[in-house]
């Protein structure tokens, strides 16, 4: 499945963004931290018939929230009462927001300085915080940094694990995550609405990387680099593989320490 992040700033245009996302994605993440004025979450989640994740990220976690922490916690509590399918809660605040109704809890752990080494401990803490899904986010400038994120997602655990990479190798992680059974991968609705700089749009995932055609039997051809030449090569090769009926797709990689 694919989760399309929507980052509207206006309550007026938010529904249009949600409707566009619902046509292309399986799950929609509504990022409340980008709104200029407080949104009516109940009104927004009833605008589409797709499951929705409500999130509100602090600046220290890569988000755009400018208010106080008390205001953010209140907004998240109000969002849960509105009844979305999921709410994303940072691990350090999860205990302050109790479970309510049928909304499932995505307990998120983010670090912006590099990959997390003690994944098992974080998973244990998230489980104790009554997680339904555990999410890891950290910078992925190279394959070296994306690899631990893939390991966290692909290992069999008691709870499903999803990940989001920050950087070039996020697309590497997303395509491998699709191959190895990640519950969902993330994409932006369109350019200018990225959850973080450089995030791929759903259009790019469809047209260039053909993510929907990747399954557990797909073989990858690695393409080193992320420049215009590499993207053109990926587009041509993937089109040729599809035309020939081959279950092969290109995997862009940024090689770290050879």
Task: Please provide a written account of the structure.
With 258 residues, the protein is of the alpha/beta class. The relative contact order is 0.12. The protein is built from 8 helices and 10 strands. Helix 8 links the parallel strand 9 and strand 10 (248-253). The protein has helices spanning 11-24, 41-45, 69-82, 119-128, 143-154, 170-179, 202-209, 228-243, and strands at residues 2-6, 27-31, 52-55, 86-90, 104-110, 133-139, 161-166, 185-188, 219-224, 248-253.
Shape: globular
What is the share of helical residues? 25-40%
- By DSSP (H or I, 4+ residues per run), the number of helices equals 8
What is the ordering of alpha helices and beta strands?
A: EHEHEHEEHEHEHEHEHE
- Spatial arrangement of strands, main beta sheet: 7-6-5-4-3-2-1-8
Distance between the termini: 32 Å
Task: Classify the secondary structure makeup into a structural class.
Answer: alpha/beta
Rg, please? 18 Å
- Report the sheet-strand fraction: 15-25%
Summarize the structure.
Helix content is 34%, strand content 21%. It has 258 residues and is an alpha/beta fold. Helix 5 (143-154) packs parallel to helix 6 (170-179).
